[in-house]
Amino acid sequence: MRLPYPPHRPPLRRAGPRLPLLALAGLLLATGSLAACSESDGPEQAVDAFLAGWRGGDLNPVGFRNPAGQRVPATDVAEEIKQLSGDLAKTPPTLRREGAAKITDNSATATVRVDWTLPGDTHWIYPSELRLTRADDDNWQIIWEPKVVQPQLTSGDQLTLRRLPAARAPISDGAGADIVRPRPVVLVGVQPDEVTDTADLVKELDAAFRAIRPRIEPPVDLSDLPDRLKEAKPNAFVDVVSLRREAYLQIKPRIYDLPGTKFRDEQRQLAPTRDFARALLGSVDPVQADDMTAEPGAYELGDSVGHGGLQGRYEKQLRGAAGTSVIIASRRPDGSVTPTDTEVFRQEPKPGSPVRTTLDVPTQTAADNALRGTSQRSALVAVRVSDGAVLAAANGGTAENLAFTAQVPPGSTFKMVSALGLLDAGAVSLDAPVDCEKTFTVEGRSFKNSDNFALGRVPFRVDFAKSCNTAFAALAPRLGPDGLAEAGRSLGLEAAWQLGLDAFSGKVSTGGSAPERAAAAFGQGTTLVSPLAMAAATAGVARGQWQQPKLVLEPAPGESAPPGPQLKPGSVEPLRTMMREVVTGGTATALKDVPGGPVYGKTGTAEYDDNPAHTHAWFVGWQGDVAIAVFVEKGGSSSATAVPIAEKFLRDLARD
């Protein structure tokens, strides 16, 4: 390429009439001016070609010299740029020339804006000076030197990325104290080349892990350990399980000296105990391949990630944003890389933001303890009556948050709702006599009571306390087609809730045939609820007005559902009286001597298929400012399963 400098011109020949002197001078002046203003063949063209080649990987159109003036092959420059870029080589920078080059005789300098996009969409931007020289053929060539890539680089260096992890934020309770925070754990592992008898090691470890109390659920699975030991390198640390330090100390004497066992102390984000609100809170675990695939670039090996519950729902907020450091490393002749202390860029990590909940640690601990030892899938929810705060949500026998998401028939606990509807309609009163027959038939469908009992003609309050199905089936027509649904909605069922976590607010049977209405009156039919929905409805009865349950306080999960209507004193006060009588002389008498004030409640046994022997067990009630719902899947009689769980919970709470 030719440069825009006036070439040597031969003398003008007289080949015609001589131009006037002024005209000739003007022509020469105009020609020289055009040449001086053009960049088409100047150093800028060489700079732009180099920048395009750097980013695109093809530098062949560009000429290079080293600082001593010797030619450098373009392929060598391309290869060195790749090596110098190091960890950044796969994402070439955006490059832009800043203004025109500065020319001094046969030399020029140009300023280049280098913009690297780093992980997390972080931009590292800096200026780099590019030197050029004019060759004998008047073409401009780049003076190649490593500092063109970054001013502090020298030959043999490379740029290396370091990820700066962000501090994970805690999940806190209603008082603002951290629930989930770093706690000590011991990682139990095995080194293959020190194992003398694999079968014996597995047997000893399994027995030790099963001896931990409270027991680990699900048990530690060691079935694949022999294969993993065979596949691992002889001196590898084969991960077996991470144990809370207090659990490890229980069995340390049994496993510490076993041939091949190794131990590492670490910190993990954990709740106070292994069971503490586990399904609701979720867990924080080492990142797995599927996590990295689901969100490319968000994680690296060694990171932690939230799974399930609040940890999963608020993962991005809790984990914060990792920072990035770029350091210069030196390559050794054997190809290894040694980091230096030279840091050329740093983007500080942004710590996560806490999630504040309404949970209460003593209440949650009591709920977890109450379900411990229950073999069936189960749930216990506690809601503060005065403000709807969820104080506890425990789940037994499952990793699912049944407390919030179960969709199951409520059984006779729904007589609380039916009775409210009947009292609102003026269809019944506390002492109004209502027959409790052994069976009651509606359009050919027969209904009966648990254990086929019959009370005869007794006051309605006795029908409620003894949980007479046939009495409620007989009263169903007095609710009308929508009376049950209206009563349920007055207690928040079917409302759109904003808690910060998925929850089922219920679906109440409405309309339908006469047999369906009869079944719905005592919690069967098509009505479905969750334990949280029933706990909140019970709190509404205790308070005299339903309000949406609350779980996440910060960040605010959205606008809460509006409060329900004020319940009529003439309806809710008799209902409270009947719920007290369930405890003093009905189906929940095991609770009448629980310390801490009077307990109110309603038991429930809910059929879940066509076999009357297949039933879920329920209890709902309140004591003081705490309303609860207990659900035991396939629990049979509520008096035998749900009520004892409620009793254990309330007694533990009274001790606190």
From TrEMBL:
Pfam families: MecA_N, PBP_dimer, Transpeptidase. Belongs to the transpeptidase family. Residues 164-327 form the Penicillin-binding protein dimerisation domain. It is found in: Membrane. Its main location: membrane. Gene3D superfamilies: DD-peptidase/beta-lactamase superfamily (3.40.710.10), Penicillin-binding protein 2a (Domain 2) (3.90.1310.10). Residues 380-650 form the Penicillin-binding protein transpeptidase domain. Residues 43-156 form the NTF2-like N-terminal transpeptidase domain. Keywords: Membrane, Signal. The keyword Signal applies. InterPro entries: Beta-lactam/transpept, Beta-lactam/transpept-like, MecA_N, PBP_dimer, PBP_dimer_sf, PCN-bd_Tpept. This is Penicillin-binding transpeptidase domain-containing protein. The lineage of its organism: Bacteria, Bacillati, Actinomycetota, Actinomycetes, Micromonosporales. Residues 331-359 are annotated as: Disordered. Residues 1-35 form the signal peptide.
